Amino acid sequence: MWKSCAGAINVIVFSGLLIMGLVLSAHAEQGQGRKLVFTKHFNESLFDITEKAEFSVEILLDEKEYKIGRDLIGIVIHNSRNQDVENASITVDYRNTDTGESVAPGAMVKEKGRGLYTVSNLDLNKAGRRKLTITVRKNGLDDSVQFLFPDVLKKKWPAGKYNP
């Protein structure tokens, strides 16, 4: 009888430890207990990490480092595991900060794959102070980042790895 009780106790303890390990692993995968690192790939691009550190956004401004096409900007999105974000919903809001009016009502976002999205009908060289807000929605996560023009053009971060 003792052997069967001891065996049952061992099974219960082992099962409890296994469940606890799975819970801790899932908790760590959600960003808890690990250091987040995001990679900026290009020197002549704009880069920032979203408010909740769910995504990084890199804006490719021209064709010097990455050929994206004429009159387009590229947006590279990575998640908190530094992986390409595909099939996300990306919205772009570009406003004059003095008047609050949209300066790109016809901006259109298209996914190109491997975390790259292109935006047409968006002129980042307009005169005046402007705010570009990019919102990323993927798998129940919703996070955004803001770029203030023309200030953001004066302090481009070099390619490399960054923490929130």
Question: What does this entry show, briefly?
Answer:
This protein has helices spanning 2-29, 151-154, and strands at 38-40, 45-49, 55-60, 72-79, 89-96, 108-113, 116-120, 130-138, 141-149, 160-162.
Description:
The structure is a single chain. This protein has 164 residues and is of the alpha+beta class. It folds into two domains: 1-34; 38-162, Immunoglobulin-like. The protein is 20% helix and 38% strand. It is built from two helices and ten strands, in the order αβββββββββαβ. A five-stranded antiparallel β-sheet has the order 2-3-4-7-6, with no helix packed on it. β8 and β9 form a beta hairpin. The longest helix is centred in the first third of the chain and has 28 residues, at 2-29. The chain is globular, with a radius of gyration of 22 Å. Residues 13-31 have low confidence and may be disordered.
What does the secondary structure layout of this molecule look like, with pairings?
Layout: H1 2-29, E1 38-40, E2 45-49, E3 55-60, E4 72-79, E5 89-96, E6 108-113, E7 116-120, E8 130-138, E9 141-149, H2 151-154, E10 160-162
Antiparallel strand pairs: 1-10, 2-3, 3-4, 4-7, 5-8, 6-7, 8-9
